[in-house]
Amino acid sequence: MTAVRMTMFQMRYVNKAFWRNPASAFFTFAFPLMFLVIFTALLGHGEIQVGGRVIHQSTYYVAEMAAFAVITACYNNIAIGMTFQRDSGVLKRVNGTPLPSAVYLMARVLHALLVSLLLVAITVAFGHIFYSADVPTGMTLWRFLVMLVVGSTAFCALGFAITTVIPNADAAAPIVNATILPLLFLSGVFIPIGDNAPAWITWTGNVFPVKHFADGMQAGFLGNAFAWSGVLVVAAWGVVGLAIALRFFSWEPRR
After folding, report:
1. Which end of the chain is least crowded, N or C, by CB within 10 Å?
2. 166-204, pLDDT tens digit by residue?
3. How far apart are CA 141 and CA 104, in angstroms?
4. Contact 243, 160 (CB under 8 A)
5. For the stretch 111-122, what's the b/e string if a residue is b when 16 or more beta carbons lie within 10 angstroms of its beta carbon?
6. Distance in angstroms (rounded) separating the CA atoms of residues 249 and 135
7. What is the rounded distance in angstroms from the CA atom of residue 244 to the CA atom of residue 33?
8. Over the stretch 225-234, which tens digit does the pLDDT of each residue have?
9. Which residues, including other chains, have CB under 8 Å from residue 140's CB and lie 6 or more apart?
Protein backbone atom coordinates (compact mmCIF):
# COMPACT_ATOMS: atom_id res chain seq x y z
CA MET A 1 0.00 0.00 0.00
CA THR A 2 1.41 3.40 -0.99
CA ALA A 3 1.93 6.20 1.49
CA VAL A 4 -0.88 8.21 -0.09
CA ARG A 5 -3.38 5.37 0.25
CA MET A 6 -2.29 4.71 3.83
CA THR A 7 -2.72 8.39 4.64
CA MET A 8 -6.22 8.47 3.15
CA PHE A 9 -7.16 5.31 5.04
CA GLN A 10 -5.82 6.69 8.31
CA MET A 11 -7.58 10.01 7.72
CA ARG A 12 -10.88 8.14 7.38
CA TYR A 13 -10.21 6.50 10.73
CA VAL A 14 -9.40 9.85 12.36
CA ASN A 15 -12.58 11.28 10.87
CA LYS A 16 -14.69 8.44 12.26
CA ALA A 17 -13.12 8.84 15.69
CA PHE A 18 -13.84 12.57 15.57
CA TRP A 19 -17.55 12.14 14.80
CA ARG A 20 -17.93 9.32 17.32
CA ASN A 21 -17.27 11.91 20.03
CA PRO A 22 -20.40 14.03 19.41
CA ALA A 23 -19.80 16.41 22.31
CA SER A 24 -16.34 17.37 21.05
CA ALA A 25 -17.55 17.63 17.45
CA PHE A 26 -20.53 19.75 18.45
CA PHE A 27 -18.51 22.33 20.35
CA THR A 28 -15.84 22.46 17.64
CA PHE A 29 -18.54 23.70 15.28
CA ALA A 30 -20.67 25.58 17.81
CA PHE A 31 -17.98 27.77 19.39
CA PRO A 32 -17.22 30.00 16.37
CA LEU A 33 -20.92 30.57 15.64
CA MET A 34 -21.68 31.15 19.31
CA PHE A 35 -18.85 33.69 19.57
CA LEU A 36 -20.00 35.32 16.33
CA VAL A 37 -23.49 35.83 17.72
CA ILE A 38 -22.18 37.09 21.07
CA PHE A 39 -19.66 39.57 19.63
CA THR A 40 -22.05 40.92 17.02
CA ALA A 41 -24.76 41.32 19.67
CA LEU A 42 -22.42 43.18 22.03
CA LEU A 43 -20.06 45.03 19.69
CA GLY A 44 -21.38 44.65 16.17
CA HIS A 45 -23.79 47.59 15.96
CA GLY A 46 -21.35 50.21 14.73
CA GLU A 47 -19.03 50.66 11.76
CA ILE A 48 -15.29 50.24 11.42
CA GLN A 49 -12.70 51.27 8.84
CA VAL A 50 -10.72 48.36 7.41
CA GLY A 51 -8.35 48.74 4.47
CA GLY A 52 -9.75 52.12 3.56
CA ARG A 53 -13.32 50.84 3.58
CA VAL A 54 -16.02 51.49 6.14
CA ILE A 55 -17.85 48.27 6.97
CA HIS A 56 -20.37 47.14 9.51
CA GLN A 57 -18.77 45.51 12.54
CA SER A 58 -20.96 42.44 12.18
CA THR A 59 -19.30 41.78 8.81
CA TYR A 60 -15.91 42.25 10.45
CA TYR A 61 -16.71 39.58 13.01
CA VAL A 62 -17.80 37.08 10.37
CA ALA A 63 -14.28 37.18 8.90
CA GLU A 64 -12.59 37.08 12.30
CA MET A 65 -14.67 34.18 13.60
CA ALA A 66 -13.82 32.20 10.47
CA ALA A 67 -10.15 32.67 11.34
CA PHE A 68 -10.86 31.75 14.95
CA ALA A 69 -12.62 28.56 13.80
CA VAL A 70 -9.57 27.45 11.82
CA ILE A 71 -7.18 28.14 14.69
CA THR A 72 -9.41 26.19 17.07
CA ALA A 73 -9.69 23.19 14.72
CA CYS A 74 -5.98 23.08 13.93
CA TYR A 75 -4.02 24.44 16.88
CA ASN A 76 -6.24 23.80 19.89
CA ASN A 77 -7.71 20.47 18.83
CA ILE A 78 -4.42 19.05 17.57
CA ALA A 79 -2.48 20.06 20.70
CA ILE A 80 -5.06 18.91 23.23
CA GLY A 81 -6.05 15.76 21.34
CA MET A 82 -2.47 14.61 20.77
CA THR A 83 -1.58 15.24 24.41
CA PHE A 84 -4.48 13.11 25.63
CA GLN A 85 -3.57 10.35 23.19
CA ARG A 86 0.05 10.53 24.31
CA ASP A 87 -0.83 10.26 28.00
CA SER A 88 -3.32 7.44 27.46
CA GLY A 89 -0.70 5.40 25.59
CA VAL A 90 -2.43 5.55 22.21
CA LEU A 91 0.52 7.26 20.49
CA LYS A 92 2.95 4.74 21.93
CA ARG A 93 0.89 1.86 20.55
CA VAL A 94 0.53 3.56 17.17
CA ASN A 95 4.26 4.14 17.02
CA GLY A 96 4.77 0.42 17.65
CA THR A 97 2.74 -0.58 14.59
CA PRO A 98 4.02 -0.80 10.99
CA LEU A 99 2.13 2.42 10.20
CA PRO A 100 4.74 5.11 9.40
CA SER A 101 4.74 8.01 11.84
CA ALA A 102 4.57 10.53 9.02
CA VAL A 103 1.40 8.90 7.69
CA TYR A 104 -0.31 9.10 11.07
CA LEU A 105 0.61 12.75 11.61
CA MET A 106 -0.28 13.76 8.04
CA ALA A 107 -3.69 12.13 8.44
CA ARG A 108 -4.29 14.32 11.50
CA VAL A 109 -3.28 17.41 9.53
CA LEU A 110 -5.51 16.55 6.56
CA HIS A 111 -8.46 15.87 8.85
CA ALA A 112 -7.93 19.22 10.60
CA LEU A 113 -7.81 20.91 7.19
CA LEU A 114 -11.10 19.31 6.14
CA VAL A 115 -12.74 20.34 9.42
CA SER A 116 -11.41 23.87 8.88
CA LEU A 117 -12.90 24.03 5.38
CA LEU A 118 -16.25 22.87 6.72
CA LEU A 119 -16.12 25.35 9.59
CA VAL A 120 -15.31 28.25 7.29
CA ALA A 121 -18.08 27.24 4.87
CA ILE A 122 -20.61 27.15 7.72
CA THR A 123 -19.39 30.49 9.11
CA VAL A 124 -19.53 32.12 5.67
CA ALA A 125 -23.06 30.80 5.06
CA PHE A 126 -24.19 31.90 8.53
CA GLY A 127 -22.66 35.35 8.08
CA HIS A 128 -24.13 35.77 4.60
CA ILE A 129 -27.63 34.78 5.71
CA PHE A 130 -27.82 36.67 8.99
CA TYR A 131 -25.36 39.55 8.54
CA SER A 132 -25.27 40.02 4.74
CA ALA A 133 -21.52 39.38 4.70
CA ASP A 134 -19.93 39.00 1.28
CA VAL A 135 -18.89 35.58 0.01
CA PRO A 136 -15.34 35.36 -1.45
CA THR A 137 -15.39 34.92 -5.24
CA GLY A 138 -13.01 35.03 -8.20
CA MET A 139 -9.38 35.90 -7.52
CA THR A 140 -10.30 36.89 -3.98
CA LEU A 141 -11.50 33.34 -3.39
CA TRP A 142 -8.21 31.82 -4.58
CA ARG A 143 -6.17 34.09 -2.34
CA PHE A 144 -8.51 33.31 0.51
CA LEU A 145 -8.02 29.56 -0.05
CA VAL A 146 -4.23 29.97 -0.18
CA MET A 147 -4.24 31.66 3.21
CA LEU A 148 -6.68 29.08 4.55
CA VAL A 149 -4.52 26.12 3.49
CA VAL A 150 -1.22 27.70 4.57
CA GLY A 151 -2.70 28.85 7.87
CA SER A 152 -4.35 25.52 8.64
CA THR A 153 -1.12 23.62 7.99
CA ALA A 154 0.96 26.10 9.98
CA PHE A 155 -1.31 26.01 13.02
CA CYS A 156 -1.35 22.21 12.90
CA ALA A 157 2.45 22.25 13.00
CA LEU A 158 2.36 24.69 15.91
CA GLY A 159 -0.17 22.41 17.63
CA PHE A 160 2.27 19.51 17.38
CA ALA A 161 5.07 21.77 18.60
CA ILE A 162 3.25 22.99 21.72
CA THR A 163 2.73 19.39 22.87
CA THR A 164 6.46 19.27 23.53
CA VAL A 165 6.08 21.64 26.49
CA ILE A 166 2.79 20.23 27.84
CA PRO A 167 3.70 17.91 30.74
CA ASN A 168 0.41 15.99 30.93
CA ALA A 169 -3.18 15.90 29.73
CA ASP A 170 -4.47 17.90 32.70
CA ALA A 171 -2.25 20.82 31.70
CA ALA A 172 -3.14 20.67 27.99
CA ALA A 173 -6.14 23.00 27.90
CA PRO A 174 -4.67 25.66 30.26
CA ILE A 175 -1.37 25.82 28.35
CA VAL A 176 -2.99 25.86 24.91
CA ASN A 177 -5.45 28.58 25.92
CA ALA A 178 -2.71 30.60 27.61
CA THR A 179 -0.66 30.59 24.41
CA ILE A 180 -3.47 31.44 21.97
CA LEU A 181 -6.11 33.53 23.79
CA PRO A 182 -3.87 36.59 24.43
CA LEU A 183 -2.84 36.58 20.78
CA LEU A 184 -6.46 36.46 19.66
CA PHE A 185 -7.11 39.65 21.61
CA LEU A 186 -3.84 41.35 20.63
CA SER A 187 -4.36 40.49 16.96
CA GLY A 188 -7.80 42.05 16.70
CA VAL A 189 -9.75 38.81 16.35
CA PHE A 190 -12.06 39.45 19.28
CA ILE A 191 -11.82 43.26 19.50
CA PRO A 192 -10.81 45.49 16.55
CA ILE A 193 -7.41 47.13 17.01
CA GLY A 194 -7.42 50.79 15.96
CA ASP A 195 -4.57 52.95 14.68
CA ASN A 196 -4.19 54.52 18.14
CA ALA A 197 -3.41 51.22 19.85
CA PRO A 198 -0.23 51.08 21.99
CA ALA A 199 2.88 50.29 19.98
CA TRP A 200 3.58 47.08 21.90
CA ILE A 201 0.19 45.66 20.87
CA THR A 202 0.85 46.44 17.21
CA TRP A 203 4.36 44.98 17.47
CA THR A 204 3.12 41.78 19.11
CA GLY A 205 0.45 41.30 16.49
CA ASN A 206 2.96 41.73 13.66
CA VAL A 207 5.44 39.25 15.13
CA PHE A 208 3.08 36.33 15.67
CA PRO A 209 1.07 34.52 12.97
CA VAL A 210 -2.48 35.05 14.27
CA LYS A 211 -2.86 38.63 13.02
CA HIS A 212 -1.42 37.87 9.60
CA PHE A 213 -3.69 34.88 9.23
CA ALA A 214 -6.77 36.79 10.38
CA ASP A 215 -5.92 39.68 8.04
CA GLY A 216 -5.60 37.28 5.11
CA MET A 217 -8.95 35.69 5.89
CA GLN A 218 -10.45 39.15 6.30
CA ALA A 219 -9.16 40.23 2.88
CA GLY A 220 -11.00 37.27 1.38
CA PHE A 221 -14.27 38.38 2.92
CA LEU A 222 -13.96 42.12 2.48
CA GLY A 223 -12.01 42.32 -0.77
CA ASN A 224 -9.40 44.68 0.66
CA ALA A 225 -5.67 44.46 -0.07
CA PHE A 226 -4.19 40.97 0.27
CA ALA A 227 -0.64 40.89 1.69
CA TRP A 228 1.44 37.98 0.43
CA SER A 229 3.99 38.90 3.09
CA GLY A 230 1.39 37.78 5.64
CA VAL A 231 1.25 34.37 3.99
CA LEU A 232 5.04 34.14 4.28
CA VAL A 233 4.96 35.06 7.98
CA VAL A 234 2.34 32.39 8.70
CA ALA A 235 4.29 29.83 6.64
CA ALA A 236 7.52 30.71 8.47
CA TRP A 237 5.85 30.07 11.82
CA GLY A 238 4.62 26.76 10.45
CA VAL A 239 8.18 25.80 9.51
CA VAL A 240 9.36 26.74 13.01
CA GLY A 241 6.60 24.63 14.54
CA LEU A 242 7.46 21.71 12.30
CA ALA A 243 11.16 21.93 13.21
CA ILE A 244 10.34 21.93 16.93
CA ALA A 245 7.94 19.01 16.52
CA LEU A 246 10.45 16.95 14.53
CA ARG A 247 13.11 17.51 17.19
CA PHE A 248 11.13 17.17 20.42
CA PHE A 249 7.79 15.47 19.72
CA SER A 250 7.24 12.50 22.04
CA TRP A 251 5.15 9.40 21.36
CA GLU A 252 5.35 8.21 24.95
CA PRO A 253 3.76 9.63 28.12
CA ARG A 254 5.87 12.07 30.13
CA ARG A 255 7.26 10.74 33.38
Report:
1. C
2. 999 999 999 999 999 999 999 989 988 877 888 999 999
3. 30
4. no
5. bbbbbbbebbee
6. 39
7. 32
8. 788 999 999 9
9. 219, 220, 223, 226
